[in-house]
Amino acid sequence: MLAEQKGGLIAGMVVGLLWSASKVTVPKLTSLAVDRAILGDGSLVFWSSLIGVMAVVAGTFTAWRRWFAFRESRLTETKLREQLFAHIMRLHVAYHDHTQTGQLMSRASSDLLQIQGFVVMIPITASNLAMVSAIVVILFVQQPLLALVALAPLPFLNVLATRFSRRIHPAVLAVQQEQAQLATVVEESVSGVRVIKGFGAHEVTAARLRTEADDIRNVSVQAAKVRSAFLPALDLLPNLGLLAVLALGGHMVLDGDMSRGQMLEFMQYIGLLIFPLRNLGMTVAFGQRAAAALLRVDEVLSTAPAVADAASPRTLPGDAPVGAVEFDHVSFGYSADAPVLRDFHLSIPPGASVAVVGATGGGKSTVARLLIRFYDVTEGVIRVDGVDIRDLRLSELRREVSVVFEDTFLFHDSVGANVAFARPDASAADVEAAARLSGAHDFIASLPEGYDTVIGERGYSLSGGQRQRIALARAILANPRVLILDDATSAVDPSKEHEIREAMRTVMDGRTTIVIAHRPGTIALADTVVLLDEGGVAATGTHDELLATNERYREVLAALMDDDDIDAEVSG
Amino acid sequence: MWASGAISDEDKLDRAETGKVLRRSLHFAEPYRRTIYWAVGLVCVSTAATVAGPVFVKFGLDHGIGESSARALNIAVVAYLVTVAIGYVVGRLQYLAINRAGEGFLRDLRIAVFDRLQAQSMAFFDRNKAGVLVSRMTADIESMGELIQWGLLQFVAAGLLLVMTIILMAVMSWQLTLMVLLFVAPVLGFASVRFQRQSNAAYLDVRERVGTNLGNLQEGITGVRVIQAYGREAEQHRRFVSSNRALYASHLRSVRVSTWYFGLVEWAGITSIALVIGVGGFLVHHGSVDFGTVAAFVLLLANLFEPVQQLSQLYNTVQSAAASLHKLYGLMDAEPDVAEHPRPVELPAEGELVAHGVTFTYDGTERPALHDVSISVRPGERLALVGPTGAGKSTLAKLLSRLYDPTSGHVSYGDVDVRLVSLASLRQRVVVVPQEGFLFGGTIRDNIRIARPGATDAEVADALEAIGVLERFEEFAEGLDTEVRERGSRLSAGERQLVSLARAALVDPAVLVLDEATSNLDPGTEAIVERALERLMEGRAVIVVAHRLSTVRRADRIGVIDHARLVELGTHDELLAQGGRYAALAEAWARSQPTV
Ligand SMILES: Nc1ncnc2c1ncn2[C@@H]1O[C@H](COP(=O)(O)OP(=O)(O)OP(=O)(O)O)[C@@H](O)[C@H]1O
Ligand SMILES: Nc1ncnc2c1ncn2[C@@H]1O[C@H](COP(=O)(O)OP(=O)(O)OP(=O)(O)O)[C@@H](O)[C@H]1O
Ligand SMILES: [Mg+2]
Ligand SMILES: [Mg+2]
Question: I need a surface site. Which of A1, A74, A372, B592 has the fewest CB within 10 A?
């Protein structure tokens, strides 16, 4: 990463060196001016003009040094963030299951800022170091003893600054953690406001917030204690250097061992040293923080996506008929001790449609997720058109297999862009056609700006059914070989169901479709019905066959139960 | 290294408002008043100590070296040592004092703003993006925290240092002071004003782009499943890069502004040394000042330039903190549009929930989502609402539970207008399980307990048992202590709904509103849950929004909503006999019902 920016960093260093040279010259010139022109009889105009010229040089280099340092550090930050984003997009779903959004957000924002804050100091510190060394040399050459005494406290400055950074680091981290926790409480309270209001649960969240606010205060005061123990001492040390110059140097001047100009020069040099030396300590502090941040960022970047393209991917056969799907004795569980699917075996011929029916939490959505490789099976093989899906490129698999998820996620964008999500280049006519098929066109057309209406976060300014229909249109426009509808019409009203069914027949015509549904009307869309129970296929047949023959199927669909049975079950 | 702030024109506070913000803050900081006085006193002392240093150097140079008096020199050294020590001790104390007061202030502010935020209406949350509200509570307050840690101290100290330095210079040599000020004041004044203005504009731009970029980042992360499912990773990345690069460009613009300014200040600083040497040397030659003064001036110049630089950087930050405070106070002052009546009454123990000709239009839309709807539900009655997507069912449910107030018409319970009722008693007795169920990060138990914070573990388990689903959650490896993770992603869609429903079973409402709260359940489980709720809610009113005949048919009365109007209302049989919309609906259902 930094290698690409070598040019910029070197330029920054060179400018920095010139800057330190110009800075070091000023006290020297001052001293000469004092001794030659004020106390001696040299030309005042000449010497002060010389300093004036140096002012222009130093000003120019100060500006340049800053420019290079910040430009490069911002560039590093920018590039790292892009790398991080790209990687997050590629990371497997199981990773995201376990990682909070807030965590990833802070990787890509505050952690990167800390890295940026350090990178900016690289060239600046380098030039500071150059200046410090130059000054130390000058001082020692002129008055070794005085230099020794004056500089004696300064190494302590560095030691102190380093120790400070070690102590403040965990304190700052704790503050950040508490802040993140507070942010989570606020975020959830705002996003979950419907539930909180619905149940009048303000006090719960208010109590949580109070705890977090207290925690933040406590750790912040703790951090302040560390600062108070070190920062004033950091101010104190260089002053001791000045004091030594005054005491020892004063006597040397009195004894005639040193000129007054030199004395002033000395004090100016010590003054010049204060900031860079303190800065050095800060750089160490920032360096440690940045290293910790970099470690956290790297932890994300070095997590290899568990679900990735095969080394030598195969492609799907192109010649019709396409869309054969086979779950070949598949087993899977989100964790090893809780299998969800056990020896699940299902094969769907090209173009056929299958309804998957099963109890809540039975594993229906899991089947859908496995087919687009959100997770990899633990045993068995899933094949599309005869190819193990692990041998396919992910992009190809997911282009040919589309899922309409049970929870609808829409983007904060126009309705049209949401429908055209899978194919941003789709023509307006195609978008409209897909929306018509999903039954969304009518209400979209009545929105204030039609397809250009921008919808709220997560689409919350639409009704539940409207959101589902847009998600359906999105999948239809993707035009996949295999379409999976995961309870995708639960919020669609039955009066429109037959319309949708007509439309769906068009969509499903010649396309392999897996319908996960609870409503008989939707189940009837499919040629065959599969009952998913106990992690496997418990029965296969048409809806009517299963109703007639399978007890469990009737139970799941509540078909045969009358009220008394259910009451018995509740109390039993 | 900290971000300097900025404010936009609309944020800009005039003097009166600044005064108001200040007074309000002082009032808010009342509990910390003593600490604050103490801190201010300490800052003054420590600044004085900083300024005193060069004075003693001058004294030492003039009287010690100039008059060849070792005693004077020693006095100067000791005095210097003492001030340095005082500076150290006071410095420590001042850090602690300022942070104690500041962090306490921020804690109170966080709590006050959050309480106020929660009191706001649903319409408020529709209007304001979640990200903005969150950043108000986090970034805005945190940046004030930085101001407290570094800025405020620096601001006060820099101001004092500047003033004291100028006074000191004037006392030592008015001629040199005049000369320095004649050069420095116009140059720095002009540059600082320009810098402050430019950096303000640049920073505003940066802030806006940071916001956009973070928004894109967040949407990318929360939408990652959809993005991957549709293979749009590359496209999403491309979009992100474009907003990220825009941010970079904007950062560079802001760096450019500070670049010229810092260069200029450096130039002015050294140039004034040249002037002091030149003019001061001239004056020394003429005997009107002594050499020590010139030396002290050279050393003091640093005390002049550093604070100016700091002040101009801090100026924006302090202003933007004032603007943030102003916004936060604005938030705290905003009267919630669904507000509690000043003298609220308790919700009557029992009664009929009635909508009297309510009409409602969402903010930012033109067409009403509900038009002149009158409907009622009695204790013990079960009312079902059906109708096509987007008809207004959820909207009616929200109005009945006063998540919104109608644009015209009103809602009453037991003949009392719900706007007169205390919100606490209303929310306790009229409970909504919303269509967008929401699980918080935490365990299953925590999530259910949201409905009644005091509930014991046993009561939570009982709530699940009451709706007949306890067993399935107990089967999880960690039982009810299973972490549901962000938004409940550890659970299946149906399981999430069961958790939401169990919340309702934990409380004892007079009216329960279920907005498609069982839509993801398999019909078998759904029937069990509904029966259970029916028994739990015996004698109470239940309003269900549903799309399934099984649910609807069990209701005492059914309201059909279409295009924002209540078009039919009656029992299942009445409506069937009417042969209208509901009859058509029921027929459609019947056709697709199991035939056994
Ligand atoms: N927060 C909102 N802001 C603006 N418009 C909204 C908002 N919520 C809903 N609407 C609009 O108001 C109308 C009624 O929505 P409502 O949610 O009441 O429908 P619904 O009958 O519940 O539909 P569904 O069966 O799909 O849930 C819709 O056109 C919808 O787009
Ligand atoms: N990300 C996950 N991590 C761990 N367990 C999970 C995860 N997602 C689902 N589960 C568990 O796996 C089981 C199957 O879940 P799945 O979502 O496939 O059910 P489903 O049949 O789709 O149910 P529903 O009809 O409620 O949507 C459930 O018991 C659920 O708790
Ligand atoms: Mg599911
Ligand atoms: Mg609704």
Answer: A1
